[in-house]
Amino acid sequence: MLVTGATGFLGVEVARQLAGQGLRPRLAVRRPSRAPELDGLDAERVHADLGVPDSLAAAVDGCDAVIHLAGRAVFEPARYLVPTFLHGTRALAEAALAAGVERFVFASSVMVHGSTDVPITSATPPEPEVDYGRVKLDVERDLERLSAGSPMRVASIRLPHIYGANDLLFTRLSPGFLVVPGRGNAPYAHLHVHDAARVLIAAAVTGWSGASAVGDREPVGWRDFLAEVHRRLPRTIIVRAPAPLAALGVRVIWAATFGSRQLPSVYTADTV
Fold it and tell me: Between the CA atoms of 156, 217, 70 and 78, what dihedral angle is there, to the nearest 10 degrees?
């Protein structure tokens, strides 16, 4: 089983669980400098880059399943997301089809859905409001088109906010200060990284196909979520900035530091 994005926050957990189950996964690594995260696992490592098709063909060769996690996991404009998510995933899926891969699991996002006053179910139509959700939905539809008429089963797991000790939120908390945009407390879907990995692996092992959102049993608003974080880390200062002020601030930061660069950034209007 191939895992792309194996050095990422979620990828490391997926790799650990697969190795712990004795499945000896093949782990696709683009940046060798991050590979030490995988030290000690009973796994095979291969170099693969979504922008280099030949590397993808070698990575999927002999695999029965793919768990695809690679891509820019931040809410940036579509022009930054399309090359890896859409074009890269298409190249990977084409390589998987050519290699006879039987199951392909794509880590999609609950952001393919828009804001709603009722719980999201399998019957909720996709209505993305930001580019991240739009591009993820484009990838889902592209995978469905590519796999139509083939034996490869495709599962698009629409993940919510994935949290855990090494995620982006908790990493940014390490200095003891965090600014969060917005002050609302509308219910939002969250999922611990351990459970997210379990879901992805289950889809890959069983061959479940389709598209579905997933999350913890109880949705929790950001105010309540952050209140629990503060209760457990009482010395941490958490500032919730008004959304209009935060939106203005990230636009200034984006224009000044990231707007013309290819580096991923969490400081975007869509993040707000």
Answer: 80
Strand partners, 191: 162
- pLDDT band of 264, cuts 50, 70, 90: low
Read off the pTM. 0.92
So what's the pLDDT on residue 183? 81
Question: pLDDT at position 191, please?
Answer: 95
Q: What is the arithmetic mean of pLDDT over 19-43? A: 88
CA nearest to 17, candidates 196, 139, 251: 196
d(CA 77, CA 74): 9
Phi-psi region for residue 207, left (φ > 0), alpha (ψ -120 to 50) or beta? left
